Amino acid sequence: MGIEIERKFLLSGDGWRGLVERSETIAQGYLVDAGAIAAGHAKSSVRVRRSGELAWLNIKSATLGIERQEYEYPIPLDDAERMLADLCDGLLEKHRHHVMFEGAHFEIDEFLGANAGLVVAELELPSAGADYPRPDWLGREVSHQVRYFNVNLIARPYTQWTADERES
Question: Are 143 and 7 in contact (CB under 8 A)?
Fold first, then answer.
């Protein structure tokens, strides 16, 4: 069984930018989305993701917290392009920056389009209680706030959030 243990953080500064080892642009859409999950019609999200010449199908359990079931499979790029265009209700785009800090691999997503302005760092861990470095640019943890889940950012993008939602 595939298990993802991931913590998600807002950023409190740009000190990470000088540590970027590589970046990529990602586009993704959902075949089973936030609406189906919220209505109780699905126990997982099903995502199509494209980055460069590669594409994947991803299934992630719709559970709150840092530990979730996750399965990911490569698919042909042409299939992904067709699914994104014809089967997904909306597209999420972001620049993903890969940063190493004290042996930890942070994936920092700068969202584009309707989610512009949102920057989130993700850190995958070997266990829920694992220690991890906390650089000064790592801000407030938002792992348990569902509005920061990518599946929800299509249905309710960051640019539509109130000031209170951005601060809480």
Answer: yes
Degrees (nearest 5) of the Cα angle 102, 117, 147? 85
Q: Three-state secondary structure along the chain?
A: CCEEEEEEEEECCCCCHHHEEEEEEEEEEEEECHHHHHCCCCCEEEEEEEECCEEEEEEEECCCCCEEEEEEEECCHHHHHHHHHHCCCCCEEEEEEEEEECCEEEEEEEECHHHCCCEEEEEECCCCCCCCCCCCCEEEECCCCHHHCHHHHHHCCHHHCCHHHHHC
Q: pLDDT tens, 78-135?
A: 999 999 999 999 999 999 999 999 999 999 999 999 999 999 999 999 999 999 999 9
Q: Is the pTM of this model over 0.85?
A: yes
